Each structure stands twice: as C-alpha cells, then as structure tokens.
Amino acid sequence: xxxxxxxxxxxxxxxxxxxxxxxxxxxxxxxxxxxxxxxxxxxxxxxxxxxxxxxxxxxxxxxxxxxxxxxxxxxxxxxxxxxxxxxxxxxxxxxxxxxxxxxxxxxxxxxxxxxxxxxxxxxxxxxxxxxxxxxxxxxxxxxxxxxxxxxxxxxxxxxxxxxxxxxxxxxxxxxxxxxxxxxxxxxxxxxxxxxx
Length: 196
Prior knowledge:
Blueprint: E1 4-10, E2 25-26, E3 29-30, H1 31-41, E4 46-51, H2 55-61, E5 67-71, H3 79-93, E6 99-104, H4 112-124, E7 129-134, E8 137-145, H5 149-153, H6 162-167, E9 172-176, H7 187-195
C-alpha cells in the first residue's frame, strides 16, 4: 500500500526463554520470517526490522533485500526506543509517509487478512489508530496515521505505543485478533505453539 511502511520490533533479549525467540522454527521457516511474509503481503513501501540483542544472529539467518534491518544500540531502554528508531529511519526514507504499522516479532499467528482489514478500516474511516484487540487489551499490530508520529517519537520506556491508544480512545478502532494473546516469552509458550 502506497504511503504505508512497517516496523517490526525484534530488539529484545528474550531473557525468559534465553534464546532468539524470533528465530525459532515455525511453519516452514522461522517466526520472524513468517511475520515478514505477512507484512510483505500488504505491499508496504518499506519494511524495517529493528534489532538489538540478537542483531548478528538475525542477519546470519535472514537475507532479504526487501527488508531493512536497523540496529538499536539502546535496545535495553525498551520498546519505545525501537519504535522511535524505526520511525526515524522510515521518515528519512520517505518524508511523504502517511501511515506506519507496528508489529512485534513474537506474534506468530498474524495473518495477511488481519493486516489488510486494518488497512481497509483506516482507508474507509476517519479514525487515526487501528489496533488489534485480544484478551481484553488493545495492542499490536497497530496502525497509526501520520498525525501520531510526533506522539510515537515522544514515547519513553518499555510500554511501547499502548499509552497512545489509551490517550486517544475516540480516535481508535479495534479489530478482533484472539490469537494475538499467544506470544512467546517462555519455552512452554513455544511448545504450545509447536504442538498446536
């Protein structure tokens, strides 16, 4: 989609699982490669993966000319730093950027249909934020119009962009994504996914 770019957050150390969870086998490749394939299906202008602790490991496994890998040297400061790093890169690449879709690297059940529905809702409606909804919360993936870029640039800490969703409930539409609550923080989480 013209005017849309994607940020995939993959900078954390995954301390509880003690390995690069985004590189664990899933379907026919890895979790991150599966998520990248879903992102490519919506044909964004640019896809950028923000790396951190596992930067070298990710680059050793994923060689993709369509994907821009951005290293966040301050990955330990939390998710907000990675969002800002990715957004800064995307705006430099395309000053006419109109929307940014933020995804995380440990939601393996993302579908192209979900992402396309989010884009359609933003195109057809007047709302500036389209977020996935699961387990009683609104979260990733989340699509922001350009007027929220300054709010994203001012994020602090490890809460990501959820605080923006909480501040602007009247400009938010959600899409049901029940499997969004299944992320990978522990070996048990991963085993449940593999055994499904």
